[in-house]
Amino acid sequence: MQRSQLKKTRGAARAGSRVPLGAKTVREEPERERAFLVGLDVRTRGRSSTKGAVTAQASAARDAAATQPPPSGVAVKSNGKPSIPEFDAEESLAELRTLAESAGAKVVGEILQRRDRPDPATLIGAGKLEEIAGAAASVDADVLLFDHDLSPSQQRNIEKIIQRRVIDRTQLILDIFARHARTREGQLQVELAQLQYMLPRLAGHGVEMSQLGGGIGTRGPGETKLETDRRKIARRVRNVEGQIENVRRIRRQQRQRRESAPVATIALVGYTNAGKSTLFNALTQAKVLESSRMFATLDPTIRGVELPSKRKVLMSDTVGFIRNLPHTLVSAFRATLEEVQRASLILQVSDASSRLSAEQDAQVEIVLKELEAEKKPRLRLMNKIDLLDDEVAKSLQADAMREGSNTVYVSAAEGTGLDKLLERIDTLIKEDAVSRVHLRVPQKEGKTLALLEAKARIFSRKYKGGAVELEVEAPASVVRRVREWVVS
Prior knowledge:
4-stranded parallel beta sheet, Rossmann fold, 4 domains
């Protein structure tokens, strides 16, 4: 419904229009933008059977994954390196479809262009663009979404031929982040990434770049209207960077207070939609948003978890990673991702039901390397085993139980395997180390006995001569508080 029509409707209601008795008023949902998807499959010369070109980043991903021990179920080549399935063009286009739906678009058509090399002027060639223009017009598409990063000149050239808005993959991801940012910190980080993306694309744009609107690719985290003047945008960039630096300073102070106590921090990382938020809720009893949409979690959340040894650890839920994650986003969200850099343990969550889980892990490896966190202690967690066949799931769990395995299989949605996961985390956490001691505590020391009941694992208890003899396993912080009753 157009704004003018909406005003007329409201005016008629105020003028005394009546609603029939018993009739229900229906609130109209805003119509979703109609998106047409365009994919590109660049075939390598001399290898016609190749599904897609091996980009530098994909190659880097496979090299990164090859340095890590492969999870159970991943085939290993004769040279000892894991055989990692690649994203082919169809799967990449399917991921773009999911991204478009997460941005609130309605996909009305798609096309996949196969070429020997990208066209430098229009990416897919002027002839193909004419065909796409007709197809987009036939389905009344509002916007074209390209599963590829477009240069500013390519975007302008395509728009001249198509006569519709054109959004590339990076701009679409930025839009989803803007849609899901809730806290002021998240909004600032999204705005910084949008500004850095916008600067080289100012030339040749008109009204759509003069302000942040409500459509895909133009949505902003706040009410700030951006003029197309580079000087004003550069000034805004400096302002936002200053505010983010304040956020980083506050985070450093909070982290220093946390680190003053012997409490370890665990960071959940993984590909977007791997089930991190569902796992986070299952372990911490938090109520962060769980959604199958990509990047449903944007703002970090930290909650406490009690391990089997009665130690408390802090767990942080972070933003999901994705293939070809825009560098501007990694830079802008560095304040948030510092939680990963300072974590005692990284819990890398993967979708066990996905054929491409190894490739997704490799993409996560790239981001961790960019954050200089690739050498952190890490535990691999294969989630969503409830989506596998029972026999396959049991076989994988049995393999994971072998000594030395660094992979745990769970279902966060059904709670399967979470106890074993906590036990495994307990063995990997070094902070506030656990030791076994023998104690003789007077019965009148009620507070001490209550402390041991709450903070230690009690294996035996005997009452002798007005004292309680206990065999306990307790963290070092608890042992220090009861050291006067330790029996050597």
